[in-house]
Structure formats: C-alpha cells, structure tokens
Design goal:
There is one protein chain. The protein is of the alpha+beta class and about 475 residues long. The protein contains 13 helices and eight strands. The strands form two sheets. Strands 6-7-5-4-2-8 form a six-stranded mixed sheet. The protein has a two-stranded antiparallel sheet with strand order 1-3. A hairpin with a 3-residue loop joins strand 4 and strand 5. Helix 4 packs antiparallel against helix 5 and helix 9 packs across helix 10. The two termini are about 20 Å apart.
Length: about 475
C-alpha cells in the first residue's frame, strides 16, 4: 500500500508526452522567466561591470582595452532598451527567447573576461550565474545547453585571453596547473548550483500543483455544503404553497360530515402537510446551526462511513474495534469532517488496491489519543519510497499486482497519499508508515489523533450516542 489513488482522472498519453516535452524543451509550467526579471538582472550586471572596469582603469591606473570593454557593456544596455520597447513589462519570455538571452549574457561575460585576463581574472566565477538562473526557470534541455556553453567558454579562457590588467611593466601570469584548478572549481560550482536550483524549482512547482489539486477537492466538498443553502432557498419558496394546502385541507375537512368516507382522507392530507412543514423547518435551519445527531460521529462510525464505498471491491474489508470502551475512556465522539472521511477513505481504497485478499481497518482509543490503523496483506512499502511517500508526485503504482494492471487500473499521479495526508494532518492527526513484521507481508498506515483534537466541541448530553462495544464487522467483497 505505497500510494493512494487520487480521485482525479489520470493524464492521457498526449498530456503525458506534452509534460515530458515541457520538461526538456518547452515552456516551463509556471510560464518561464519574466521579462522584468531578466532586464533587471542585466541592468545589475551592466552597473557592476561598468564600475569594475572604470575602477581598475581609472582608479587603479591599470592598462586595459577600455574601449572594447565599454563597447561590450554598452551592447547589453542596448539589448535591455530593445526588450523594454519590444515587449510589455509583465511579459513572460518564451523558452527559446529566455535561453537565447541567457546565452548572450554568457557570451558577453566571456568577451569581457577574454579582454581582462581570462582564467586569471577573479571574476571568472560569474560564469556560473546565467546557468543557475536557467536551472531555476528553464527546462532541463536549455540548462544543459547553457552549461555546455559556459564550460566551453571556461576551457577556452584557460589558454586564449589578453593579459590580466596589472601595474605598468609587470606581467601577471598564473601557473597552468593553477589555471586548470580554477577551471575545475568553476565547472564543479556550476554543476552543483545548477542541480540544486533545478531541484528546488522542480519541488516548488510540484508542491504548487499538488496543493492546487488539494484545493480542488476541498472546493468540491464546499460545493456539497453549498447545497444546504439551495435547500434552504427551496424550503422558503415552498413555504407559501404548503401553507395554502394546509388551509384548504382544513377548510375541506370542516365541510364534510365526520362519518363521510372523505373525512379520513382529509385528515391524512392535513397530517402530511404538517409533516412537510416540519421538514421544511429543518431545511431552513441556519447554516451555522449544526445538526447534533448527524453532525457528529464516533470512531467506529467514521471508519464504517469511510469504508462504505469500497466494501464490494475484490478484497475483503474487516472493520474491528480493538478493546472495549470503558467508563474511564468511552468511545470518542467527534465532529463530522468531510476531509477526514475522504482522507481515510483514500487510504482504505489504496490498501484494497494493493491487498492480495484482505484489508483490516482497526480503531482503538484511550483517555489520551485515538488511533486508526489501516493494514493489508499486499507487498508492503518499498524501502526506497518509505521516507519520501507523502511528498507530491511520489508514486509506486508500478509495483501494483499484475491482476490490477490487467484490469486497466491507473498508474496514479502520485497525489493521492499527499492529499490524504494533508487532509488528515489538517484535522490534527499524524501519520506513520510501516510494514508488517515478518513472516507476514503488507503495509500498515497508522493515524493518531490527540483525543481532544478528535472530539473537538462536546455535544449536549442528551445527544450523546450510546454504542455497544463491537468486535469485528466483516465485509466480504465480490471478486
């Protein structure tokens, strides 16, 4: 039971191919690099380069090709001016244009380094910056290309460059071994920072997508709550015709003799009209006023309601209460929360998906905490995903049984367990994952609430549900 199935449709093959193409060569999911960001970074580079060149030449008096250096810097200025005139400020650069601009930045910086000492220049590490920006904002293929360009420029500058600006009459030359050492350190820094930035950006996008999926499910639950308002509006509209029916039925009952065959029918009509009025009064209850009978449920009721949609699947579902309720620790009664029911149901569905024959859902409690355990007799959690399961887009659906694959089951998107975990933890629970001890096989998910977090606000005593201690409720699914 390594991953729960999100209640969303899997990506079709065309969408999956599009996502892979987006990763390697297309636009990034969040729209790519913003024009304003690119322009601002280039203005910062122009200012820094101008200050460094002028300080070295005019401030320190070191000779260097000042005209060529200022010309290369001026070209970046014109590039920024052109971008500002050609595109609106909120424009997001396409992958091709963003990659071309970053490649230009690498070439322009390499030209400046060529004019001012090459590998002997201490600013050689600035070659890392464009590659890092690409790793954080562009697809993997663009970053690889820019990394290859930066690496080529670095190796070129080891042997081919103008002398480093230094005092007049003094030639500053570093040993070749030291130059190669600097080149290796630049390349290592480039690879490390690029991988780090790419990983951080990818995780950020995945988390955003997963949270969006979670919000979509919560919005669906909110739509169900919105039906309460529609029911109240319908009850309000039906109130007037129902009152008319009640008055007419009462007048008709008075117009017939008591021994008439129609007297009984009029009495029945009047009683049913009164019953309809009582139902409408329940529907028009204030949205903030909770129904104490249906707005609360016990631990075992929570398990039964979450497991109900899956009782006729291929695996047998066994619901059990571990330990009888005692006067010191009666069965907890908590608020009905759709997110908790959905999350627990998702875990049960996943257990059924991976189980060979049986899934056990057990509930127990004491004076301090409430524990629900979902276990199966399937292959269990793989060791390589035990620590990462619960992060978005982490899935082991490929390890499902052959029968499930032949039945056409989805490979999963890796969001199910993340959504279930998020919804349950939002209610105050914590989740732990483990495998059953040998020689048994199977996965175990344990959900633990502090008793106070599960119970929430206490119900009035007259509404407390009294439940006899249950042992085992066995549901046999159909094959």
């Amino acid at each position: 039971m390594a991953e729960t199935a999100a209640h969303t449709q899997p990506l079709p093959p065309r969408a999956a191919k599009a996502g892979f193409a987006r990763l390697l060569g297309g636009a990034t999911p969040d729209g790519g690099l913003r024009l304003q960001t690119s322009v601002r970074l280039r203005w910062f580079a122009v200012a820094g380069q101008s200050l460094a060149v002028c300080l070295v030449h005019f401030g320190m008096g070191f000779p260097l090709p000042i005209g060529a250096c200022l010309g290369a810097i001026a070209l970046s200025t014109w590039v920024n001016i052109f971008l500002r005139l050609a595109y609106p400020t909120p424009y997001r650069l396409s992958t091709q244009l963003a990659t071309a601009l970053l490649a230009y930045d690498l070439v322009q910086l390499s030209v400046l380094l060529f004019l001012t000492g090459g590998m002997d220049n201490p600013f050689i590490f600035l070659l890392v910056a464009p590659v890092t920006v690409s790793a954080a904002t562009q697809p993997l293929l663009s970053t690889i290309c820019l990394g290859a360009l930066a690496g080529s420029a670095c190796l070129f500058l080891i042997s081919w460059h103008l002398p480093l600006p230094w005092a007049a009459g003094v030639l500053f030359v570093l040993p070749p071994v030291y130059r190669w050492g600097v080149a290796v350190s630049v390349l290592a820094t480039m690879v490390f920072t690029a991988l780090y930035a790419f990983r951080l950006a990818t995780e950020s996008r995945q988390m955003s997508a997963a949270l969006a999926a979670t919000e979509s499910i919560l919005a669906r639950e909110q739509q169900l709550h919105a039906l309460d308002g529609l029911a109240a509006a319908a009850a309000h509209e039906l109130g007037t015709p129902l009152a008319t029916i009640t008055v007419v039925a009462k007048e008709l009952s008075r117009s017939v003799p008591p021994d008439s065959p129609m007297a009984e029918d009029f009495a029945l009509l009047q009683s049913q009209a009164v019953r309809c009025r009582e139902i409408l009064q329940k529907l028009t209850r204030s949205p903030g006023e909770k129904d104490p009978l249906h707005g609360q449920l016990t631990v075992m009721q929570l398990i039964e309601e979450a497991a109900l949609p899956y009782l006729r699947l291929r695996s047998r579902v066994v619901i059990e209460q571990q330990g009888a309720a005692s006067p010191e620790a009666p069965e907890p009664l908590g608020e009905r929360r759709p997110g908790v029911i959905y999350g627990l149901g998702n875990l049960i569905e996943n257990a059924i998906d991976f189980a060979r024959s049986e899934v056990r859902v057990a509930g127990r409690w004491d004076a301090r905490e409430v524990v629900i355990t979902v276990s199966d007799d399937g292959p269990g959690f793989a060791a390589d995903v035990m620590d990462t399961l619960g992060d978005p887009f982490i899935t082991t659906r490929s390890s499902r049984s052959r029968a499930a694959k032949e039945a056409g089951a989805s490979a999963g998107l890796g969001l199910g367990f993340f959504i279930a975990k998020t919804l349950l933890e939002r209610s105050g629970a914590r989740l732990s994952l483990d495998n059953r001890p040998r020689p048994d096989t199977g996965a175990v998910v344990t959900i633990i609430w502090p008793r106070a977090a599960f119970e929430g606000a206490e119900l009035p005593h007259r509404w407390r549900i009294i439940r006899q201690p249950s042992t085992v409720v066995d549901h046999q699914g159909t094959a």
